[in-house]
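Quick one: structure for this chain?
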Amino acid sequence: MKDLLLMIFRVLTVLSVALLAVGIVKPEWIRFGHKRPGRPTIIAVALSLLVIGLSGVGAIQPAGKNTAEAVKPGNVLSETIYVVGSNTGHCDPGTKPGTAGVSNDEKTSTGIHYMVKTPANYNANVAHPLLMVYASARTNRYESEDFVHLTQEATAAGFIVAYADHRTMTPETVEELAEIPGMVEKMWCIDKKRIFLTGHSDGGTTAMAIGFISGTKHIPAAIALSAAGIRGEDLKAYQCPNPLPVMVMHSSQDSLFPGYGKEAIHWWATCNGCDTTPPVKDADGCVTYRSCKNNVATRYCEGTGIHSEWPGNNKAIIDFFRSGQEAH
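Got it. Here's what it folds into:
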């Protein structure tokens, strides 16, 4: 129906322009029955039709664009298969008012906007793992989702996914962004022991910082960070948190934060009490450190893209978090 209306308004626009041209150059060509309208009348009618045509096209095209954007393959909601066992957490009926689907305009007390996406068949009585995605610099929640494309795979795996707008990096901002998982948990049925953090560049820095800062390190069950901007020398200033599953993704061609990933994973491997012998290289090209405390997974994946590229290891990230929740 929208396509038909769009075509009608476009035809009307073209005809009105033609009528305007004839009205200015050859008004005598226009007749209505036996009447011949004057040039001012023809021009007025043509301009009116032109306004109607352009307004109609403008009103319909954005709606069509939004519809197309809403069904980007990586951003659609998937149904999940609920496997409820004796260890599955539950929420009492009516205690979590968050709705199924997409909630685009949630906001923290300090004004940070975020959105929440649930599995398409969201069950408000079953506790879900939460995948919290922090945005890279100058990126809002919508752009962040378009960048990482985690929604479809994560909701299929049973995760509720939250995307936050970027904020300039400061210790105070990190603490404010760290409040979002708790706010999501108040509205949706979330298992507090299965909160997972990820992000790219500033988003990766945020996810990592939340994992070791004293006031927030209790929040994540695991973190997976990409192109984070914290050096090994900076990390030495912080006390190690309890052993935490960590997946560091960094490119050997990252010119903005060169070598930061290797420095970060070395610090985390030390904090996690892993074996100091060279880590094992996995089939996917990543390396896994051995004999870590509490058997926590500690992985490093090195890519070859530029800093601004998401590594695209979405399945590996989700599998890492799922294995982390099982170990946890």
